[in-house]
Amino acid sequence: MGFPISPTHVQPSGRVSQTENRRIIITLEAAGKVCGVIRFTVGGIRAHCIDEHGWKSTNKGGRRKKHAVYPDSNTPWRTGVKCQRFLVQGAKSGYFEVQATDPEQIPSRAQIKSRIDQFKAAKGEMEAALRAVEAKERRKIKEFDEARESNPWLRRVKWQAHTAGLDAEKLRELVSPLGDDEPELQVLYKAFNWMIQAAQYTTVQEVVGQAALFEVNKKETKPETQMPFDSWMDITTVRSYTQVWRQILGYIFRAEDTEPEDRPAYQLTSSQAINIQNVRDEIRKFQEWKDGEGKQAEEFDDEERSKHKGESEDDDEDESYEEIEKMRYKSVIISGLAVLGMRDDGGWLNAEDYTPKYSAVIKLARLMVVQEAYERKKEAMRRLQENNNEITKAIPREQTVSYYHLIGKMVKRFMTMANGKRDPTPMR
């Protein structure tokens, strides 16, 4: 008794015994089914046909005559059959026919080699894609689990929570050195360096007064400051401090050109968005003027700038204190500082290594506060003198708000610890 396998429709299998060629199979039907018995010799197949099926040959024997035409043989078998079997002995060790291979379908050596090369290429592409996915997954910053974080510094700053799920390599590119293909940032960085140099000359007792220097050096509102602010820095410190701020500025402008899902979830206030666009417009005008394409850009629109400056003062007062508390890293500067805390190896800077960055931000921020107060008073004096050409320069200086009060207002908003009815902000 053999396995019930349909003949001629079974493909040869490499998992059973080797395919046998040139066997003989009986095609007689018994009980409505083809017999299908396979034998090695004609004698064996003939004996089976006679004994099991009562078959009789119509060939009476004798030598066939040359050139004579004989009818087709009625032998109930086929020769040259391909077959296999599952077992080599026992009741189920019978042979069964397998489908013959079309010689035209047998691939040549060149075709086989081409298919092998194609397989290797496809395998290589799949492995490369898999490695790329694994590398991207490794670059992705893991979710922050405060309960498992043993470092109190990282629990405090929560950088990992702010950047979780983002590509660490792409984030580091946002604070990377200036590229040759970033003319906008080249102008911005140069202007920032000039502004810090000017602020160092402005932030002295001879210009803004000693009281203003004490005021800008405050860390808290109530206690009196013991020392005035000193704007002096050696060239090495100036370069390292300006580099930190340049990275933050680069982060702001590059992140704004990045898809929101690929950057941290900070949020600009309406006035910040306006001012950033104003900076871009001024840089564009400067580039046009420098290239000789826009002579009309030589003079700035003072009225428009003053309008936006007023918007900045009002909007920041209304939005920052209440909204930023809801999301610590809503501030774009704090967000940039978080990215500056990333190491190249995927880890985070410790408190000792990161402290100089805080020092750079605070030192230059105080310089910028004084410079802003200087520019505001200068603008107020210019407008007052324009309205009355007969007054002397000393009168506008006396009739406009002093440096001390201008600086004090900004220091209370941005530089000192929260107190009284004031809500804390990320910059405090």
What does this structure look like?
- This protein is mainly alpha-helical and 428 residues long.
- The chain has helices at residues 42-53, 109-139, 152-157, 159-163, 168-173, 183-202, 205-208, 210-216, 235-256, 270-290, 302-324, 332-340, 351-387, 394-399, 403-414, and strands at residues 20-26, 29-30, 33-34, 38-39, 77-84, 96-97.
- A hairpin with a 2-residue loop joins strand 2 (29-30) and strand 3.
- The radius of gyration is 44 Å and the shape is rod-shaped.
- Mean pLDDT is 77; it is low at 294-327.
Please describe the topology of this protein:
Layout (H helix, E strand, L loop, with lengths): L19 E7 L2 E2 L2 E2 L3 E2 L2 H12 L23 E8 L11 E2 L11 H31 L12 H6 L1 H5 L4 H6 L9 H20 L2 H4 L1 H7 L18 H22 L13 H21 L11 H23 L7 H9 L10 H37 L6 H6 L3 H12 L14
Antiparallel strand pairs: 1-4, 1-5, 2-3, 5-6
Helix pairs in contact: 6-9, 6-13, 8-15, 9-12, 9-13, 10-11, 13-15
Please name the defining characteristics of this protein:
4-stranded antiparallel β-sheet, 428 residues, two-stranded antiparallel sheet, 15 helices, mainly alpha
